[in-house]
Amino acid sequence: MARNKFDVDEELESPFRLVHFKRLLGYLTPHKKQMILTVFLMLMASGANLIGPYLIKLAIDEKIPGNDMLGLAMLAGIYLIAIIVTGLCMKYRIRIMSQVGQGVIQHIREDLFTQLQKLSFSYYDSRPHGKILVRVVNYVNSLSDLLSNGIINLITDLFSLTVIVGFMIVIDVKLTLMAMAGFPILAIIIFVIKNAQRRAWQDLSNKQSNMNAYIHESINGIKVTQAFIREEENKKIFNEVAGSYRSSWMKAVRIQFLLSPSIENISALTVSFIYVIGISSIGEEITVGSLIAFVGYMWMFWMPLANIGNFYNAIINAMAYLERIFETIDEKPAMINDPHAVILPTIKGKVEFEDVVFGYEREEKILDHIHFKVNPGDTIALVGATGSGKTTIVSLISRFYDVKRGQIKIDGIDIKTVNIPSLRKQMGIMLQDPFIFSGTIMDNIRYGRLDATDEEVIKAAKAVQAHTFISRMKDGYQTEVNERGTRLSSGQRQLISFARVLLANPRVLILDEATSSIDTETELALQKGLENLLLGRTSFIIAHRLSTIQKATKILFIEKGRILEEGTHEELTKKKGHYWKLCNSQSYSLEIGS
Ligand SMILES: Nc1ncnc2c1ncn2[C@@H]1O[C@H](COP(=O)(O)OP(=O)(O)OP(=O)(O)O)[C@@H](O)[C@H]1O
Prior knowledge:
It is found in: Cell membrane. The chain crosses the membrane at residues 35-56, 68-89, 151-171, 177-193, 257-280, 286-305. Residues 36-317 form the ABC transmembrane type-1 domain. By secondary structure, the protein is an alpha/beta fold. The protein has a domain at 18-330: ABC transporter type 1, transmembrane domain (ABC transporter transmembrane region fold), CATH 1.20.1560. The chain is built from 22 helices and twelve strands. A six-stranded mixed beta sheet has the order 6-9-10-3-11-12, with helices on both faces. Strands 2-1-4-5 form a four-stranded antiparallel beta sheet, with helices on one face. α3 (69-118) packs antiparallel against α5 and α5 (129-171) runs antiparallel to α6. The structure holds adenosine-5'-triphosphate. The site of adenosine-5'-triphosphate (ATP) has 11 residues, from α12.
């Protein structure tokens, strides 16, 4: 998967095909009844609206010359009713179609969100998250009008066109044919601008996505930005990104707005043409009333045509968004269950890496022939320089990525052959900077097992020594925390995530130990909490504390994706090899908090 960043346009992996549009229409199916009702309302409205010029013709040609005041009043009455009917129909149409539009949007968003929950780490590794966000929020929004009003308008505009042409033919066939003279010119204009417009909107969607990615990244990194006083520099970058968006927008609308004035100019020209022809034939072939009514219909004729032109524009614009939306929905998760996958039975916790080779990119080798065996209940400490591959090893155990060669077995079963949720359910993963969701502390702990009772949550918190600090808070377990837990200290976040993992009661525990220095009280609580967490589980710890490493059943010393040394702290210290050197190196002594 190609990697992308905020200033690089994304390549389109699945360009627009007509089937995409059909698929989009599929989202309207559940709203069929409302759509039919709206079409009916719109047909009534346009019928009532279209009758106007014909009533004027009757008034000028028959009622006024005949001095028929009653007839004239009746025509005025019919006109009034027609206007009221049009207004009422429009009102209900707007209400119904807003419901339909929002319903469809919600449905597409649900599909996108469900898909995003399934996509593997590699998908998120490969692009800025702001570019994913823009698809779910902005692109979907852009479709709403097309789907709700656009399609209904198209149907009613086609209906109006047919009725208008019908009235025009009834009034004068020859003039009707002359009025159509502008058509071929319009067809040529549409043909010429179509491709340019499509490219312009694709470019615009890319620039919008880039801008979103940069804003998202800037918000996430705001603390670092302010700490390093990078505001001015960031503003310059933002101006560049936003400037490209603005230029793309200007280009896209310049092309788009060629269509409307073209239609207006053609319509004005043909109307003038009809006036010239019509006026010269008044009294011979055509009456004044007929000419006025005919021109009235001609103006009306170009209006739905302009609307259809705009609908066409909207489709072209929407294509650029649809391509991205369906590309995301169709993205195949890199990690999928084997068709013959079996449910992993409750495991004891034996883990084996057999000659595992792995790289994030196709040609890359991050792990090179990793081979080791862990017995149930063992604690494995992974140590080594930064970037040596420790996190990568533990990521493979939960099958966040697939190995390129070799096998990972749990209780003797290759993890590639088991159902992924049944595997992950038995794994407890705790990252160095554990994620805290917005909500209460209770909710955050319960994330480990959604059906846990309050008592179970509190019991887990007590076991990992988190209860003391939680009960000291004003609202205790009901204290609201922000997204990412910004109201909590890093030690407190760690303790909450210990409780979360303990509640899930996994057989295998994967833990990236925090390196941040914390106060002695929390440090002691963390150590005690950790001891309770490890009890009776197979645990992999990317260890930074000497105390954790010393207590481990086995230490794996990793360098450049290979295991260089394996053994207990005593064995490896005696060996005076890489591990011993690392322990004695100044940087590591500091890191392990000795
Ligand atoms: N998502 C990723 N995509 C591509 N390369 C990655 C990814 N994550 C890590 N790497 C690369 O894989 C190598 C091993 O990284 P890993 O995170 O496993 O190291 P580590 O030993 O855990 O380091 P640290 O102690 O700093 O956390 C590094 O060279 C890193 O650049």
